[in-house]
Specification:
The complex is a heterodimer of chains A (about 120) and B (about 290). By secondary structure, chain A is of the alpha/beta class. Chain A has helices spanning about 10-25, 35-45, 60-65, 85-95, 110-115, and strands spanning about 1-5, 25-30, 50, 75-80, 100-105. The radius of gyration of chain A is 13 Å and the shape is globular. The longest helix of chain B has 17 residues, at about 80-95. Classes of the chains: A alpha/beta (about 120), B alpha/beta (about 290).
Chain lengths: ~120, ~290
């Protein structure tokens, strides 16, 4: 079973994402912000990260920039999942090291398609 | 809706579009035709049938056919056929058509354009190998409404997230508020035509590659056999046919043979089983891939 870290400051989004990803046979860990997510990654690097952009303490872009500098930090497939849907934001996320990008709102089909696209399914 | 009205719609749809509805598809009629009824100011499916009986060739008839035959589509649907396209069909054609340097492709159920545009994106990925080649692509569908959408190439945020890798979105689309439009270059690569597969398509000319996915499932066996045999007649002896995951030629016709280990991919059988059509295309704006484009 693959491990996916869901990083989002909204408990509702985390709950929806958990439901979808558990249904796709992922084991889920949750974090409310980038800093907490980074600490989880330092203890056990997940195979996948579903990542929000706007969060308190540390946002998604700062998180992925830090993550990719960590030992094994290039291993996880990172899929942004955010309301930031402007093309400039997408380009910025990919430059920072994101593998895929989901524009909210999302549903199971989109999550499944994006995770399949990066080889997680 | 009474059983008599349901039967009337079944016969109408079978005759006009080839669509075969089994006995338990009343729900499909109701869910798809109630919006049509409302659009025409009709209170029920019964009223819609009454009006249809009076105007069998009017805008209501067209709207009914479109509503019942329009199916969802998304970019890189099923993925595997596009791997076959780039890894099997195009490499074959790049060798076999070296002399003419021309490839013709038909997306026979183009719907809202996702399939032909996916093929166009695959072709753009192979730009370097296709320099100097002329690749013509035609997309056809029964529905005028979906073809208008295909021509415009404008998709919602939801549509561009189903199957389309994010890099392709950045590379080939322009953002228009919450919508995304495919590039003029890709739009110019495809000619769209309204076509009922039950009617003759010999005027489209010959095709090296035909994508006819997820449409034969709606026809009865007699119509399937007829369509497959006529597609074969549009092809040279090494032409390729791609069918949907739930479709096959096996047990229907010998005009095509499955390509080993390539699910959904078929190649034209020898000419002894099927005569080839004249090579001249009756229409088609040609586009050219040239180095540096």
């Amino acid at each position: 079973m693959k491990h996916c870290l869901v990083v989002d400051d909204s408990s509702v989004i985390r709950k929806v994402a958990r439901r979808i990803l558990e249904d796709l046979s992922f084991q889920i860990t949750e974090a409310e912000d980038g800093q907490a997510a980074l600490e989880i990654c330092r203890k056990q690097m997940p195979e996948a990260i579903l990542l929000d952009w706007n969060m308190p303490i540390m946002d998604g872009i700062e998180f992925i920039s830090q993550l990719r500098k960590e030992p094994q930090g290039k291993t996880p497939k990172v899929v942004f999942c955010t309301t930031e849907n402007h093309v400039a934001h997408i380009a910025k996320a990919l430059r920072a090291g994101a593998d895929e990008y989901i524009m909210k709102p999302f549903d199971r089909e989109i999550v499944e398609a994006k995770f399949a696209e990066v080889g997680l399914i | 809706m009474t059983p008599t009205e349901y039967d009337y719609l079944r016969v109408f749809l079978k005759q006009r579009s080839g669509l075969v509805l089994s006995n338990e598809k009343q729900y499909l009629i109701e869910s798809r035709l109630m919006p049509v009824a409302r659009k025409f100011g009709l209170a029920s499916i019964s009223n819609l049938v009454d009006k249809l009986k009076l105007e069998q060739n009017g805008s209501l008839a067209d709207a009914i056919i479109e509503a019942m035959t329009t199916n969802e589509s998304f970019f890189f649907r099923d993925k595997v056929p596009f791997d076959h396209f780039t890894q099997t069909m195009l490499p074959h054609m790049l060798t076999a058509r070296q002399r003419d340097r021309r490839i013709r492709i038909w997306s026979a159920a183009a719907s809202t354009g996702q399939e032909p545009y996916t093929l166009a994106m695959c072709l753009k990925d192979m730009d370097a190998k296709l320099g100097g080649w002329r690749v013509e692509m035609i997309g056809t569908d029964l529905s005028t409404e979906v073809l208008e959408k295909a021509k415009a190439g404008i998709y919602s945020q939801f549509e561009v997230q189903r199957g389309l890798p994010i890099n392709y979105l950045l590379k080939h689309f322009t953002q228009m508020g919450d919508m995304w439009q495919i590039s003029p270059e890709l739009r110019s690569m495809i000619q769209y035509r309204k076509l009922n597969l039950l009617e003759s398509f010999s005027s489209l000319g010959q095709f090296d590659i035909v994508f006819c996915r997820n449409v034969l499932i709606y026809f009865d066996n007699e119509a399937k056999i007829d369509i497959l045999n006529r597609i074969r007649k549009t092809m040279p002896e090494d032409g390729f046919l791609v069918l949907g995951a739930a479709e096959t030629v096996v047990g229907l016709t010998d005009a095509f043979k499955p390509v080993a280990d390539k699910r959904g991919l078929y190649q034209a059988a020898s000419a002894s089983t099927s005569a080839a059509a004249p090579a001249t295309a009756a229409f088609g704006t040609r586009f050219q891939f040239a180095s540096g484009r």
